[in-house]
Amino acid sequence: MTARTRVLGRAGQYLALLAYLVFLAFPFLWLISTAFKSPRELGSLHPTWIPRHPTLDNFRQAFDEQPLLHAGLNSLIAAVSAALIAVVIATPMAYVMARHRGRLATAATGWVVVSQAFPFVLLIIPLFLVLKNLRAINSVGGLVMVYVVWSLPFALWMLNGYVRAVPAELEEAAAVDGAGRLRTLVSVTAPLLAPGIVATALFAFITAWNEFFFALVLLKSPEKQTLPVVLTHFLGAEGVADLGPLAAAAFLATLPSLVIFALIQKRITGGMLAGAVKS
Amino acid sequence: MRDPRRPVRRLTVAGVLALLLPLLAGCSGDRADTGGVITLRFQSLAWQKESVDATKALVKEWNAGHPAVQVQYVQGSWDTVHDQLLTAFEGGEAPDVIHDASDDLADFAYGGRLADLNALLPERLKRDIPARSWGTTTFGTGVYGVPFLQEPRVLIANTKLLRSSGVRVPTVEQPWSWAEFSQVAKRLSGAGRYGVAWPLKEPVSATLNLGLGAGGRLFARDAGGKAKVEFTAGDAVVPTTIAAQVNTDHSAARATLGMGGSDTLPGFFGGKYAMVPLGFSYRQQIARQAPPGFAWTVLPAPAGSAGLDQGVSPQTLSVAEDSPHKKEAVAFIDFLLTPAHMVRLAGGDWMLPTGTDALKDPALHTTEDGWATGAALAPYLRPAPAQSVRGYPEWKDKVATPALQEYYSGAIDTGELRKRLVQDGNRVLARYQR
Fold first, then answer.
1. Where is the signal peptide (chain B) (predicted)?
2. Between chains, do A129 and B73 touch, taking CB under 8 Å as contact?
3. CB contacts < 8 Å between A and B, how many?
4. pLDDT in tens, B301-310
5. Residue A179 in 3-state DSSP?
6. Is B31's CB within 8 Å of A135's CB?
């Protein structure tokens, strides 16, 4: 391969990457642009990237018409709680699955993968009835239960990779020094797993933060609704939308997920690939 | 030796507990002791600021005057109402008073989810709303909702282009025929402009409801009362007109076939389309978004052998069968739909009230923003043809929508369209009528 071919190949790669980035970024950039446009500008036949007369009216209207802050707080409570509980449950489970590879662990792993294939619609009515019997309908607590169950399989799968990346020899050394199973897990394995645990927790957080369907069905009271549900209140019949305020509210709702994902994306890929190659 | 990280850990644990304890405490739901006061949950689908404000204000007025029956306003969404109600009914957690559209009620009514209001409705309300509107919420022998707001489809036209073309401007008394409409669309086309832009992202309701005026019904019932699809000459008028405008005359824009109504507005404001057939309530968006100096006019839709008749699916208020307070729920609906209140709700949504008294209100007869044209069309609004047909949603999604989309784009001819709508359609309907 000549130097020229290598340079051309590399340039092609960067071009493809740039095209992909533009493709991914376009909807979000358009959302930001829309959020700052007046109704008149939104109805223009020749839309521009940069608003000609930028305005904050859409943000004002969005906050004025819908309880965005309150809904955001509900989303935050549900997402943080779900993430914490999911990680607390998933960590020891993942440890067992990674360290004790028997038929049970294989079956459990298989079940985790299969469970991801169930569509929401299939689960929602039985889930609704179970939560009703638990008197957990219309409570953020009930919603958190659902989010924990929903994010647990993937959290387990992610953490499994992280646990396998921790050398078993370290635990054996701790055992030789007299540490029990729990002590080993808490004092030796957990600190090494910390980046993976954080990444998993943040992934569970983002899943819960963005979730719409369960929140729609399970929460009745307006004061308990989460942000994705409140966003639908900007939509009318037959797909008509109050586009400016909707874009403003959607932009604000997207920010936490974006910031968090920017922080954890390296760790997520690390977690997925951990243990893939024997070193 | 003390672990220096211990205080941090303690703080973390305390933080987690502080977050979780209120959650667990909240698991008991919202069954507070109401001290003998009845609380009705009213799920409203009002979404535009004016209509939300009007609805909330009326709820507030009710609550002030009825301390023993309090109404809790719950915000719903048009986009998700069907799935949300379906689940709520299954779980016995449906709101007491339900805001919806009449074309969404059939399966809930036949499924025993909604209360039959026949014996509960006050005479005043029964008399005030015309029989044709009650027809939209009557399933079998029961009345399962109160129709209260409706909107005709109208033509919104660019006034300047219309006037300069020299065509006859239609009125409710002298509307265009479908043939004349085709001629006008051709005349308004040219120089990079289309005479009409049909936003047909949802082609079924537009085709069926406008088809009523052309003598089409599409759905008929046999002697046993079973619904079946029939595609008559009247049913063919609207689809063949649109298809010819798009594929033969090129007086209708092909690009708008996959658009929703809002998507066509920039082209309309920019002079790219001279007319856009839209629901009456779209005027609110047009009034807000139109550039300064842009003049627009509301025209009646073309008339056929049945005149200006067109199908509508009014917005409705229903009561859940599971509600323990049906009488109180109906009393609240009656309050919400007094003529003066109905006018407020209609104004907020830029729609027409169904009530005869409310329709007389002078505010609905002003020429400004085309209100008078809409009000004059009210007597011609009929129940949408598919209104009470069980299985209609599946027929619409699986048969009619793809068939009409292919037909309008020129991929299939009228014979194939007829075959699909009738043969495939009847197979779907048969499953619901065994």
1. 1-25
2. no
3. 147
4. 999 999 999 9
5. coil
6. yes
